[in-house]
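for the writeup, i need someone to sanity check this before i put it in the appendix. the sequnce is what the collaborator sent (i think, or maybe the updated version? ugh). structure was predicted straight from it, no edits. if anything looks off just tell me and ill rerun, i have time this weekend
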Amino acid sequence: MLSSRLAIAVVCALTSLAFVGACDTFDAVGDRLDDALGSDHGSDPAATDPAANDVVTATGGNTGSDAASGAPAPAVPPPPAQPDPNIQVQLGVQIRSLVVGGNLYVEANFDWKALGAPGLIVDIQVKSSLSYPEWTDILTDLDAVDVATYQLQGPYQTWHFRAVAQDPANPQFTYASDIVTIQ
């Protein structure tokens, strides 16, 4: 005569791997049937050791480690910050060219506003085909609303300017004004 556990193993083998989860359930049912019929396999520690039925519960918060393995729990990264859509940056530019003693002097007058968050910091950048081939900071760490003058280098050419604001609370984001081009 087959024990209930052996009968369940045969049923699980015949039903193939598609019902593996069901076999686990059948195995648990087989344990109950064995207990009800008084069968003892000698391999189930819960059947012979009453302490094996004790439930261990952990209390408290996350201790920073995986209780089962003792390894540190993986850190959960904070959700990525999103740029503030309310920040607006405006720039006004005027260029004056002066020739003194045969030398050309180009002076730029700027006025800007960065609105939408407290404590915004503004940089003024320039780009031109001859003197500044990449966006270059010419005035930095400015108040959110102000005016300034800067003497540009190089011959008269096409100049591109922009104001770039940064919120110190979210330094990974920058907010640029429209580009002002003067020829």
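The chain has a mean pLDDT of 74. Strands lie at 88-100, 103-115, 121-128, 136-142, 145-152, 159-167, 170-176, 180-182.
thx in advance!!
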